[in-house]
Amino acid sequence: GQNIDQPTEMTATEGAIVQINCTYQTSGFNGLFWYQQHAGEAPTFLSYNVLDGLEEKGRFSSFLSRSKGYSYLLLKELQMKDSASYLCAVLDSNYQLIWGAGTKLIIKP
Amino acid sequence: DVKVTQSSRYLVKRTGEKVFLECVQDMDHENMFWYRQDPGLGLRLIYFSYDVKMKEKGDIPEGYSVSREKKERFSLILESASTNQTSMYLCASNLPGQVQPQHFGDGTRLSIL
Predict the structure, then answer these.
(1) Residue A101 is nearest to which of B41, B98, B104, comparing CB atoms?
(2) In chain B, N or C terminus with fewer CB closer than 10 Å?
(3) Which among B40, B42, B105 has the least Cβ separation from residue A4?
(4) What is the pLDDT along chain A (109 residues), one digit of tens a residue?
(5) Using an 8 Å Cβ cutoff, are B36 and B44 in contact?
């Protein structure tokens, strides 16, 4: 079966750094997406990785290792507005998106 | 900016009713999707459409149908609502090309009593 694993919940402090991990087992791989979803709002696109390595986009970076079936989202200089759920999703060999359950990130002052 | 609009944020219906959820996007996207989102589970694909009058079943199509009469509008229909269809429903759209990110509406929280 196809499976995406993320921690259910994480807590971090304002101004700190947090790393949200995502591991996957899918039939094929055509890329991995990260989305942010604030409570009661639409998921919004953060990043897409298809090659190994780190992609940096301001305070947010996303890393991929295809051989390990592993990705992480790194958030630096955390702000209160970063409190949200972060969704990991993988495009499988049929270009269907397989979604993780999401990681709820709580930022404390 | 892409705008995906879902007709209702909150909806309460009774078991056995026929329920219509509407979704409209304003960026001329070919692809449209309907998901449901439940606590502890990832987004699950119900139906999708790559063109007008075209529809494909997703992972959990049972109890649902869809309609795409116009490019900008994709409707989800619960033929006879049941309590296990109480959920958050999300509509999304994107351009052709499978690696294009999907743009989501704010969701409809549907309660079936």
Answers:
(1) B41
(2) N
(3) B42
(4) 789 999 999 999 999 999 999 999 999 999 999 999 999 889 999 999 999 999 999 999 999 999 999 999 999 999 999 999 999 999 999 888 999 999 999 999 9
(5) yes
